[in-house]
Design goal:
- The strands form two sheets. A three-stranded parallel beta sheet has the order 1-2-3. A two-stranded parallel ribbon has the order 4-5.
- It has 14 helices and five strands.
- By secondary structure, the protein is mainly α.
- The chain is globular.
- The structure holds tryptophan.
- Tryptophan (TRP) binds next to strand 1 and helix 8.
């Protein structure tokens, strides 16, 4: 088990004992409708933490969309879609502050002192950024691509979050956030009182769901089952999913990744053990497996889809949720920026 996983297990225990002592910040880039991979990977866990009573900030990272593309088409609609998905899965705006980072000026101002605390070589050796550059469709790498991890540190530190539930790919950004917090405190902290906490990543045991083509489920690969898909669309997507040549259905993620991912998806929706789900299908083959998956997904998502459709009828409410969240985030960010100014002796 890696150090980050061990630490996450310890943190889970502390959360159970005293959820009120933690503040969570996490979020997404608004690049399209969320899918089942997001749901079982992160959304489910966010709702769990919220329901345990952990104070939660949920950031919609709209500037971050511009890291690997020149134009972000209709960001406003993407942001609305994201808020709808959040509300549909059970994020409760009374307990979770949903906001967009572009709407919070004081958060963005933190980027300048933060950038002064990191070197160009630290920014350019970030493995996640390197990977994103390798897959970028831009002809030239933008300055935002190199600096967005420092911006993400501002996303996290403006509200002094101490827990950041993320996937493995975000660990380099968390490490940079901790470095920035530590350096800021060392350089500007007075009387040993740190301005920023050093936040921890909270890794959840996220199941790896494959998309319909057998590679990781992802918005950009067109292989995902969106939460908002209709029952018929879901049936078509599941029917198109890649399987293999063996008739007997078994749960064996190493040897049979595509079939096992479908079994796992059904099991997650049914709240059952994947081996048992596979055993029930046995020799009935891939068609029977897909029928089981379609029914399980559609049943599981029915209330989520129903809520989403209801909120979609009331976009005024959806926008108000975001405006309210932005207002709270602005207050928090102003307070933090005030402390930063005081520490840096730039209060004029
Ligand atoms: N980089 C994250 C992603 O691509 C999104 C994000 C932006 C984020 N700011 C954040 C996640 C702060 C956690 C904390 O998914």
């Amino acid at each position: 088990m890696s150090a980050a996983q061990r630490r996450s297990a310890e943190l889970e225990e502390l959360i159970r004992q005293d959820p009120g002592r933690f503040r969570v910040l996490t979020g997404d880039r608004p690049t399209g409708r969320l899918h089942l991979g997001h749901y079982f990977g992160t959304l489910h866990n966010r709702v769990r933490l919220q329901d345990l009573g952990v104070e939660t900030f949920l950031i919609i990272a709209d500037y971050q969309v511009l890291t690997d593309r020149d134009v972000a088409d209709r960001l406003d609609e993407r942001v609305e879609d994201l808020v709808l998905d959040y509300l549909a899965v059970g994020i409760d705006p009374a307990r979770t502050t949903i906001f967009a980072h572009s709407a919070v000026s004081a958060l963005n101002q933190l980027l300048l002192p933060f950038l002064s605390l990191v070197s160009v070589s630290e920014l350019s050796r970030n493995p996640t950024v390197k990977d994103e550059i390798a897959h970028s469709r831009q002809s030239a790498v933008s300055g935002l691509m190199f600096t967005y991890p420092a911006h993400q540190a501002a996303d996290i530190l403006f509200c002094k979050a101490d827990l950041v539930p993320v996937g493995q790919d975000q660990l380099p950004h968390l490490e940079l956030t901790r470095t920035i917090a530590r350096r800021f405190n060392d350089r500007y902290g007075t009387g040993g009182t740190p301005v920023f906490p050093e936040p921890d990543a909270l890794l959840s045991a996220a199941p790896l769901l494959l998309g319909t083509d057998g590679t990781k489920m992802s918005k950009s690969r067109g292989n995902a089952i969106p939460l908002a898909a209709g029952a018929d669309e879901t049936a078509l997507l599941v029917r198109s999913a890649k399987t293999d040549a063996h008739r007997h259905i078994a749960y064996d993620p190493e040897a049979r990744p595509e079939v096992s991912s479908l079994v796992l998806l059904a099991a997650l929706c049914l709240g059952r053990d994947p081996h048992e789900v596979a055993a029930d299908i046995g020799d009935k083959g891939a068609a029977a497996l897909k029928a089981t998956v379609t029914e399980a997904v559609n049943e599981y998502l029915a209330p989520i889809r129903e809520r989403r459709a209801r909120y979609a009828q009331d976009l005024g409410y959806v926008r108000q949720v975001l405006r309210d969240g932005n207002e709270i985030a602005n207050e928090v960010a102003e307070t933090t920026l005030g402390e930063v100014r005081a520490a840096m002796k730039t209060l004029y």
